[in-house]
Amino acid sequence: MHYPAVIAIDGPAGAGKSTLGALLAARLGYLYFDTGVMYRALTLVALRAGLDLHDRAAVEDLATRVVIEVAPPTQDDGRPYTVLADGDDVSWPIRSPEVERHVSLVAGYPGVRRELVRQQQVIGQRGRVVMVGRDIGTVVMPGADLKIFLQASLDERARRRANEVRDLPDPPPVTQVRENLARRDDLDHHVMHAASDAVVFSTDDLSPEEEVAWIMAYLARQG
Ligand code: DC
To answer: What dihedral do alpha carbons 125, 127, 130, 135 form, nearest 10°?
Structure first.
């Protein structure tokens, strides 16, 4: 059985990309690479450095200097992988609400995208990788042998996200989660569309295990 060297998974926030990507990578013995962490890590470093995030040139310059690494988990604390920025472990801080609020602005700068896409391509070209993001099938790895674009309704994505954070001390109501997702859809819109040769899934009705089963059957049919 010949499996694709690169599997690209794109789609909006909350569509279930990370769950599917991690499951599929584990199933195939591939590296799971969530490219969103690079935009998040850069945003965190910029915030910590006290940079004005509206200063596009400064943020773009920082993107060429920060060394972002994604490695297998170095601690057994539930993290799917370890993220290092200039050697600092930022695996949890990149998930903070502050980063969440600013990351779309940073990810919108062309110089930032140019630099991070280049770095992502280096990792993608090594092969045996499931890459998850917004523009993997269209920009980062347009030659990927299998491209998946996940869709889910805003209501379903909001329900899932609210469920994920319901154990936090002060969980946001589903209406607020829904508003945040709608805002991010708007901001991320410019980089996100399905490649013409992508398999498009609606995850409203499928569980992640069913998606993996579908993909494995699809790959078997492709030979
Ligand atoms: O998937 P995520 O929520 O971790 O993504 C964080 C941000 O990075 C989000 O604003 C979209 C952006 N992003 C991007 O522009 N391109 C990618 N390949 C991955 C993420």
So the answer is: 20
